[in-house]
Amino acid sequence: MSAASSNPPPAFHPETELVHGGTMRSQFGETSEALFLTQGFVYDSAEQCEARFKGEDPGYLYSRFSNPTVAMFEKRMCLLEGAEAARATASGMAAVTASLVSQLKAGDHVVAAKALFGSCRYVVEDLLPRFGVPSTLVDGADLDQWRKAMKPNTKAVFLESPTNPTLDVYDIGEISKIAHSVGATVIVDNVFATPLFQSPLKLGADVVVYSATKHIDGQGRVLGGIILSSEKFIQENVHQFLRQTGPSMSPFNAWVLLKGLETLHIRVARQTESAAKVADVLARHSNITRLIYPGRADHPHAAIIKKQMSGGSNIIAFDVAGGKPAAFKFLNALRLAKISNNLGDAKSIVTHPATTTHQRLKPEDRAELGITDGTVRLSVGLEYADDIAGDLVSALDKI
Ligand SMILES: *Cc1c(COP(=O)(O)O)cnc(C)c1O
Is residue 8 part of a domain? Predict the structure, then answer.
């Protein structure tokens, strides 16, 4: 019983499932989810142990691949996402890597959108080809490029939407149709949207991955990741891969993330409300030359956003006039927002992608993705919205 098996449709609203979903109480009837900080499990008899290993006796074997606290986290995420099954991993990158590698073999081909989180791009562009899985990178907004990139051996399609850091939003339904025409599995990294504002499985994707490090923890404490999909995909691909290779989520981290899920909805709702206010204030500032926020009507992909997202989430991208010197002056003048490379945190965080998350890319590749030397990514936190906006404006005034 290492994770949720087929779930009935959720009986409660997501807000309620986030608090109660997946809870399994021990014989002590604890209120809060128990932390099963254990590597292994003991059996009543050698016969029971044999039956457990054969899969005939339900129960736990070894925390590399099954642990009750981790299982509660997986089950709660399944209820939130409307997925049949899930497996948690040590980090978001472990989830991304496992979702791809577990189903691929030499001779297969992968298509992905160019605009990817730096490490995701490494996996697709550098790592997979070393094992005989070439990849084609496309402009995710151009459906013709997706169509042209598909080959009979295209096994997986990978995309993030909204993308990091320029917040492009791609048509998950249309891309899934194109991918399915050659039998490819569609994997969506849904970190920026969060499970609250976009449901890739309902839009046609086959697999959703998260870095739980971001909004799901939301308080800067632990790393984690999760893969959600059909029971069949998990059983045929992900389960064996994780079980035998071991990028497991720690029970302690699962426990922290369960606590994070209880408040996910109110945190992200508040951050999104604040992000909308902050985006409007920034958009009017004369030292900002471009602002992208999925919650604004002037977003370049507003029509797709309307179709597939129910909220703008908490990340804003903008260009500061004056390139890198101005961007650095701005970052250094902030008193409240922290210079860091994380997002989804309770604390507002600013990132300069060109010198951090996207430093590895060639300047022309950054330019192609719309990342300039003046681009700043802002993750709006839980501080009072006017305090966040005031901090940003006073730092912009100093450029
Ligand atoms: C952070 C992030 C990841 C990687 O997650 P980790 O938990 O840091 O390994 C993957 N994809 C996106 C979009 C991210 O923001």
Answer: no
Residue whose tokens read 């961007």: 327
Name the pTM for this structure.
0.96
Name the nearest CA neighbour of 236 among 386, 62, 87.
87
Tell me the CA–centroid distance for residue 180 and ligand 1, in Å.
26
User: Same domain for 138 and 34?
Assistant: yes
**Contact present, 380 and 282 (Cβ < 8 Å):** no
Segment 204-233, tens digit of pLDDT = 999 999 999 999 999 999 999 999 999 999
Same domain for 275 and 246, yes or no, is no
CA distance 281 to 301: 21
CA–CA dist 255, 221 (Å, integer): 12
| Ligand 1 pocket mutation, candidates 89, 93, 223, criterion most atoms within 8 A of CB | 93
Mutate to test the pocket of ligand 1, among 91, 122, 214 (most ligand atoms within 8 A of CB): 214
269 and 189 together in one domain = no
Which run of H or of E encompasses 368? Answer: helix 363-368
Range of the domain at 369: 265-397
